[in-house]
Amino acid sequence: MAKMRYIQAINQVFLDEMERDKNIMLFGEDVELAIFGDTREVYKTFGPERVYNTPICENSLTGMAVGAAAAGRRVILHLMFGNFVYTGMDAIAHQMAKLRMMTGGQMDLPITVIAGYGGGRSLAGQHSDTPFPVLMNIGGVNVVTPATPADAKGLLTTAIRGNNPTFFLEASGRGGDSGEVPDGEYLVPFGKATVHKEGSDVTICAIGTMVRPALRAAKTLEAEGISAEVVDPRTLVPLDEDGIAASVSKTGRLVLVDECKDRCSAASHIAAVMADKCFGDLKAPIKRVTVPNVSMPYAGVAEMAIFPTPEKIVAAVKSVTGELAGASA
Amino acid sequence: MTEIPNVDEQRRAEWLALYERMLLIRRSEERVGKAAQAGEMPGGVHLYIGQEASGVGACSVLEDTDFITSTHRGHGHFLAKGGDVKAMFAELWGKRTGICKGMGGSMHVADVSKGILGANGIVGGGIAIANGAGMGIKVGKEKAVSVCLFGDGAANQGVLMECLNMSMVWKFPVIWVLENNGLSEFTITDKVTAGEQTDRARAVGMPAVTVDGNDVIAVQEAMKEAVDRARAGEGPSFIECKTYRIRGHLEAEDAFLGGYSYRTQEEIDAWKTPDKDPILRFASRLLAEGGASQADLDEIEDRVSKQVEEAVEFALASEDADPELIFDITFADQRP
Ligand SMILES: Cc1ncc(C[n+]2csc(CCOP(=O)(O)OP(=O)(O)O)c2C)c(N)n1
């Protein structure tokens, strides 16, 4: 184990995997000097034959990822901000997600697309989105949302070695978070949720950037006699439906915390699945703590007013555990 | 004010106005940079320092009814096109008195009443909007023009070729103003760009020129020609302004670079000299051939400094943005 920052864990995987497999190539805007720090030294180490510092042209880059993979390479594309999923969307939706199926399974597309998502830093509407829903809805790309440095390492390694297009979505505001990361080879399988904190009264299912506020909320609740279990799906496609359901069946209550806008959020999808799978065990309605269906505002006060916070999570939990809080009071 | 015979009084006034506008941008940006460095200003702040002549020269021949689209580096464009410095500062400080009520911030300053369709956080985001504005003007049979201000980085977005083509095919009244500062974030644009930028316009048969983007008069003259052509229904033009970004890509650049660099201090300094810096250069020219005196320039300096400080005071004294407003303004007439 070594303590490292989230962004360092990602950087280490790039360096290790590209060393291990000479067939891996990496490209994207400003990957040479690494605007987020996650591709630092990659260009220097592997050179311009395998690493391309590209012009600004996302709509071509996503299509080129498909072509390079079709030509036999293992591809890493850095899209910088999660919002640029939208600028690169044509080839993502029409080619990356569909070509394998539409060619009768003839081509593998081992592509990892990495991008940092999320708000909370006054970057306003065009740099603060959490584009899970659009990617989840395409049908044909994996969506991976690590919350910790260890999961960043494990999931990124799995993504790079896998044979499917995968969106590895970096928790932008969490790049500096540090944590213990296993040494050596470490893979976290897709479709396997993890429990960050055990509890018995309510399941808080938190995604990516929302794990930290969820854990804070759980701590506050603990002090008030409410035992919350914090579950992190880690990957949204594939989704560990049974793993989340096991927790929900145990606690009987579910609060989802997701940085997406509420409509068609990852939270609303998981809520639907859990309503189906755990109907008999649910003691209260499923609640979602998400972002309203609006563009992220710039001003800090306005952004925080609509951003999921520990306080809002606590309030949502209390709205379904009212009788428990009353009993312990 | 000194009276110098034999100079065209009108030109003198015009030149002083250009100088004042450039200086307003410079002093505003310096103040904003100070606030950003001190951590008083949230978000990503991209300053226009060093590029004032291209924006001011380009906008100097426009009316409020003409449109511009801008970039993430948009404060200078906003002020050049007549945006109000108080309303801009209030926006940057996230206040409800801001030009966008604190909802857009640095990368999104816009004043539609002045034809400023907005700074833009999406590189290349303004290109199709400008082309569409040109189309709208044409459909409405208006005399206005649409000016797309964009960077050399943005020029590599495919949308540029698409829109150059359409603007030419349909003779839209669009002026494509490329501010070529040689840099796209931390990438040297030349390393990722083939050929001459103007050749992209020439490929569709569009008149294209390259001008010294740090010479406000050179930019203005090229613009005049292009605007005349556009207003006469003769279609679009392409102007490449060669310039340089003196500040970092964004104010927090060092934190992102983590000790690495993409240019030398000597390179930056070379653009700050009296014969390169657009403002120092124009000051000398004003004194030498514009009929202005040092007293004129000093008076402008005083006025601008006061204006900037008043804008800061206004911003700081204003109330924070109103979160409830988000739900009122998302749609024209419905709740989100
Ligand atoms: C679609 C999109 N891709 C990437 C970015 C990130 N980005 C912001 S500014 C920039 C460089 C832009 O360079 P240029 O157009 O030359 O403008 P300059 O910064 O030099 O003014 C990049 C890559 C973005 N904001 N939008």
Q: CATH first level of chain B: which class?
A: Alpha Beta
Main sheet of chain B: which strands, in order across? 1-2-3-7-6
Computed Rg of chain B: 20 Å
Number of strands of chain B: 7
Give the overall shape of chain B, derived from the CA principal axes.
globular
The chain-level mean pLDDT of chain B equals: 96
CATH class of the largest domain in chain A: Alpha Beta
Please summarize the sheet with the most strands of chain B: 5 strands, parallel
| CA(first)-CA(last) distance of chain B | 57 Å
Strand order of the largest sheet of chain A: 3-2-4-5-7-6-12
Helix content of chain A: 25-40%
How much is the average pLDDT of chain A?
96
Please give the largest β-sheet of chain A.
7 strands, mixed
The secondary-structure class of chain A comes to alpha/beta
Give the second-level CATH assignment, the architecture of the largest domain in chain A: 3-Layer(aba) Sandwich
Task: Give an overview in words.
- The complex is a heterodimer of chains A (329) and B (336).
- Chain A is of the alpha/beta class and 329 residues long.
- Chain A is built from 14 helices and 14 strands.
- Chain A has two domains: 2-181, Rossmann fold (3-Layer(aba) Sandwich), CATH 3.40.50; 194-320, 3-Layer(aba) Sandwich (Rossmann fold).
- In chain A, the strands form three sheets. Chain A has a seven-stranded mixed β-sheet with strand order 3-2-4-5-7-6-12, sandwiched between helices. A five-stranded mixed β-sheet of chain A has the order 9-11-10-13-14, with helices on both faces.
- In chain A, helix 1 (6-20) packs parallel to helix 8 (149-161), helix 3 runs parallel beside helix 5 (89-96) and helix 13 (310-320) packs across helix 14 (322-328).
- Chain A is globular and about 65 Å long.
- The N and C termini of chain A lie far apart (42 Å).
- The mean pLDDT of chain A is 96.
- By secondary structure, chain B is α/β, with parallel strands linked by helices.
- Chain B has one domain (9-317): Thiamin diphosphate (ThDP)-binding fold, Pyr/PP domains (Rossmann fold).
- Chain B has 13 helices and seven strands.
- In chain B, strands 1-2-3-7-6 form a five-stranded parallel β-sheet, with helices on both faces.
- In chain B, helix 5 packs parallel to helix 6.
- The longest helix of chain B has 29 residues, at 9-37.
- The mean pLDDT of chain B is 96.
- Chain A binds chain B through residues 29-30, 32-37, 40, 53-57, 59-60, 83, 87, 121-127, 292-295, 297-302, 305-306, and chain B through 42-44, 91, 94-95, 100, 102-108, 120-125, 153-154, 156-158, 184-187, 189, 191-193, 256-258, 260, 262, 320-323, 325-327, 330, 336.
- The structure holds thiamine diphosphate.
- Thiamine diphosphate (TPP) sits between chains B (71-73, 121-123, 151-154, 181, 183-185, 245, 249) and A (29, 56, 58, 80, 84, 87).
